[in-house]
Amino acid sequence: MGDRLRVRKGPNEFQLVVLRLSERRGPASEAATLYEETAESVKARQSLAGQRKAAPKFAFRDGGRPSKKERRELRRLKGDPED
C-alpha cells in the first residue's frame, strides 16, 4: 500500500496511489475505493484535454467520385483521347 502506479489508457496517463488491497474481485465502484489519483495527474490530464480541444480538427472532405461530365473535362484537360 502506498505504491504509485502509472497507467496509460489511450492518450491519457493516470498516476495512482494504492490505498488498500482487496481479497476478491469486485465491482468497479468498489475497486475505485482502493486507489486514488494524484492531484498532479488530474491537472496534467485536464491540461492535455484542453490542448486536444483547442487543436485544429482535420477532416477529409471529398465530394466523391467525379461525374461523367467532370471526367470528360479532366480527360480533355489532360489531353487524353476520348473513348
Would you kindly provide a written description of the structure presented here, covering whatever features stand out?
It is built from three helices and three strands, in the order ββαβαα. The protein is elongated and about 75 Å long. It has 83 residues and is of the alpha+beta class. It has a three-stranded antiparallel beta sheet, with helices on one face. The longest helix has 16 residues, at 39-54. The chain starts with a strand and ends in a 5-residue tail after the last helix.
Structural class: alpha+beta
Helical segment tally?
Answer: 3
Total strands: the figure is: 3
User: Looking at the chains present, what oligomeric state does this protein adopt?
Assistant: single chain
Helical coverage, percent range: 25-40%
Low-confidence stretches: none
Distance between the ends: 77 Å
Task: Record the strand order, biggest sheet.
Answer: 1-2-3
Mean pLDDT: 90
Overall geometry comes to elongated
Order of helices and strands: EEHEHH
Largest sheet: 3 strands, antiparallel
Strand content: 15-25%
